[in-house]
Amino acid sequence: MRGFYIGRFQPYHNGHHQMVKEIATEVDELVLGIGSAGDSHSTRNPFTAGERIMMVAKSVVDFDITTYAVPIEDLERNSVWVSHVQSMSPAFDVAYSNNPLVIQLFKEAGVEVRQSPMFNRGVLQGTELRNRMMNGEEWRSLVPEPVVGVIDEIGGIERIQRVSDTDSDGRDSDGGPDPE
Amino acid sequence: MRGFYIGRFQPYHNGHHQMVKEIATEVDELVLGIGSAGDSHSTRNPFTAGERIMMVAKSVVDFDITTYAVPIEDLERNSVWVSHVQSMSPAFDVAYSNNPLVIQLFKEAGVEVRQSPMFNRGVLQGTELRNRMMNGEEWRSLVPEPVVGVIDEIGGIERIQRVSDTDSDGRDSDGGPDPE
Amino acid sequence: MRGFYIGRFQPYHNGHHQMVKEIATEVDELVLGIGSAGDSHSTRNPFTAGERIMMVAKSVVDFDITTYAVPIEDLERNSVWVSHVQSMSPAFDVAYSNNPLVIQLFKEAGVEVRQSPMFNRGVLQGTELRNRMMNGEEWRSLVPEPVVGVIDEIGGIERIQRVSDTDSDGRDSDGGPDPE
Amino acid sequence: MRGFYIGRFQPYHNGHHQMVKEIATEVDELVLGIGSAGDSHSTRNPFTAGERIMMVAKSVVDFDITTYAVPIEDLERNSVWVSHVQSMSPAFDVAYSNNPLVIQLFKEAGVEVRQSPMFNRGVLQGTELRNRMMNGEEWRSLVPEPVVGVIDEIGGIERIQRVSDTDSDGRDSDGGPDPE
Amino acid sequence: MRGFYIGRFQPYHNGHHQMVKEIATEVDELVLGIGSAGDSHSTRNPFTAGERIMMVAKSVVDFDITTYAVPIEDLERNSVWVSHVQSMSPAFDVAYSNNPLVIQLFKEAGVEVRQSPMFNRGVLQGTELRNRMMNGEEWRSLVPEPVVGVIDEIGGIERIQRVSDTDSDGRDSDGGPDPE
Amino acid sequence: MRGFYIGRFQPYHNGHHQMVKEIATEVDELVLGIGSAGDSHSTRNPFTAGERIMMVAKSVVDFDITTYAVPIEDLERNSVWVSHVQSMSPAFDVAYSNNPLVIQLFKEAGVEVRQSPMFNRGVLQGTELRNRMMNGEEWRSLVPEPVVGVIDEIGGIERIQRVSDTDSDGRDSDGGPDPE
């Protein structure tokens, strides 16, 4: 029995970690899909896929179940998204998500989806976390211990603060440098 | 004499249908270009190109002129858009549009464009229609009969309501699943 | 009952036409998927999607079944090809093909595929036809009447002869102009 | 000693020109990277890369240093942007920018970046300039003489006014025609 | 000390496995980059990225070092390949490769590369292995035990035999279905 | 009167240089389009666009006419190639080419094309030149003086010799690293 749980993990935090713990009681193996894998260095997506793999892998290393951290690049085409995910991931029996679009796409493709009100907490914490990082506020208590190490090692706080300067100018750093 | 009329047709509605009727008095054949053909499962673009082909083809079947429903994928590059359209469509003599960008691009390429104030009504009805679908309000009287059948058969209302849940979270489902 | 039959139709010829006739005895509606829709002006793919839509639509106009000519652009990714086709085409119940890769992909996706030894004749005739065009030999008797008209109108023979000059230099015109 | 200075140059104006003059005192050769080179015919990016090359090249022709105007297409992926720029541009020793994201990316790649408060003036003038063009106000005094000639020759004012009609409808013309 | 070793792993075989064993004596952690991750269902690339992750992960599970199996999609642009790899992979100190192009690209980017004549054996065995699979000959003794399980479970032999039928027709199944 | 002459310039050599001299007698300004601008580090395309801009710009600096060296990235779609070139290049009145595909595309778009038997010499010399470089034979006498400087400075001979090792293995380095 293998499960699939997708997130952008920008960064991987305690909300995600709690969900993985719950899912771990239902499956033998778990694939953690790292969404928008090609995006980085933006306010919304500060960390690279490689950095996020580190965060996830170091955090789940002591769990009893086997885990896979798999980057999933965006194809920008909802209609083939499920096939794309299925080709990039080890085969899975059930998907875990609270995202309505993800749920809809999996359901139309005949994949079982499980959701829970608890899963929403992660969504809220992601934006909150990045805002704290940008504003120089406390964020370390909201992520698993190994994530602190990864972010510090790569100078992640300095990075997100720099790129948020870009955004405050009214422009979106998700699409690559776009100087006036 | 062949005309070209492009729309996203999300969905094909009475405003579009009225325009096609008017154009039909001026041309022998009409190409209906289905724009943003690769987009689907979003608030703004709920239906796939295949579903929209069905809506259009079933609705125009009794017109006296020959019609072609041709999906046009976005190339994200205005400067080659006219060439792209011309390669995907049967050759046409005149384009019908009220969209200023479309008009500008065709004019720069030396293609005759015809417009009319009436054409604008379709724009307004498209957003209105999707809002009604999302809110569970009456929409069936605003589209040709065959469109109702297509949307019901694919579970279109449930789909647009689900993906609009995603959007209300402040995120855009046009670019593919992007879970927090 | 709707069927799907995909080909590059470079050009649409008597072999394709015979197949469509056979399929027409089994289905009520038939989608003709025009593969590699973005390719044109090469030895292997001389005609644009728009030109091929014309060839197909004019040729099948007198058949009793309803037909749809739908361009399918390449995504260069086998694993999502079936989903891509399904999003671009009106929904279909059965696919017709003799191409082993197409058969394999549809089967893995759980789509019924029907094949027949007869279908292979089209493959042979496509290459043969283009060779005849390039060499200035007789080709008109191998295609439906309306296809002759389309090719003559667009100067198709001159085009394929010109681009085959490029290829004889050892280069592939499929990927766009690539002058030394 | 060769410098690199990137801008979208929509259009190239006196703010840019002043910066180039200052940079010219520090380097022997200067590469002017024309960002978002594939974008055109939108409110934010009205002019094509070719038109912008003309503006830049005609304006800097009398400077003592050697200059290169090099279009840089967006790759939509911040993590490879520096490598992309380096492959498209003649090799450079120092980059000039006041854009925080550009600075961050060059720094992570170990490229020296120089900035100055003065450089910001260009940012402000770009938006202001396009607004004046859209509103039919005075803009000619804000750009070098040759830029006026380029814009007049291509009918640039009519173009930006037309495409801004599109945008006022709440839609973004950056991604190509997207008619309702 | 973390190493990076890239291969297409179509499939992961004893030659690869021997290399990983050797590299494991030199590093603490090893990233196994799964190249051409988007390709599958072709003679040269029969297996999906997800299937290859399974092969690799199941085979290296008993090694003493920490390993990461990371799919790397092709960007089709040599000049940004190193940056792409670096963004997708956990940070590494040394790359292992015997591929001259890979070596050249890493060297130009200032990344240490280690090679060994032994590494070549994998290259030879990959083609040989796939040929054996296509011809129905013995292949199970050339791959680690868990790889046999993965290939059997997905019907891998039937798949490669089917898609090689396509190729024998002179066409390349790497670029997606391309029926005549 | 402005002309457009496109080549891959891998590298820019005496054959190209002779052509530019001839064209210079017919036009006031000349755009040198650097084709396949995104390709590099392969046997067929060893040099980056930036390196080729340097070769061209340094070589034509003493000509009396104004020249522009403009990289043109491949769009892989013949039908929009002319529009793409026109958007990337300063406007031109006449195109110079001996490539049959290029001639065909410009003619279909209504652009004047001039050709001459002399122009072919460049084609032959390009392949010959790269073969000499790969084999360690004399090549310096076949290129303008500044090109020797550029190639030596970037270690171009070592690069092409390394990547040709890759190719001798039967694989194509044009599409990015693809290790077995």
TrEMBL record, chains A, B, C, D, E, F:
Comp. bias regions, Basic and acidic residues: 161-174
Annotated ranges, domain Cytidyltransferase-like: 4-131
GO cellular component entries: cytoplasm
Pathway(s) of this molecule: Cofactor biosynthesis; NAD(+) biosynthesis; NAD(+) from nicotinamide D-ribonucleotide: step 1/1
Reaction catalysis annotation: beta-nicotinamide D-ribonucleotide + ATP + H(+) = diphosphate + NAD(+)
Keywords assigned: ATP-binding, Cytoplasm, NAD, Nucleotide-binding, Nucleotidyltransferase, Pyridine nucleotide biosynthesis, Transferase
Alphabetical GO biological process terms: NAD+ biosynthetic process
Cited PANTHER family: BIFUNCTIONAL NMN ADENYLYLTRANSFERASE_NUDIX HYDROLASE, PHOSPHOPANTETHEINE ADENYLYLTRANSFERASE
HAMAP family found in the cross-reference section: NMN_adenylyltr
Family that this chain belongs to: Belongs to the archaeal NMN adenylyltransferase family.
Name by which UniProt lists this protein: Nicotinamide-nucleotide adenylyltransferase
Taxonomy of the source species: Archaea, Methanobacteriati, Methanobacteriota, Stenosarchaea group, Halobacteria
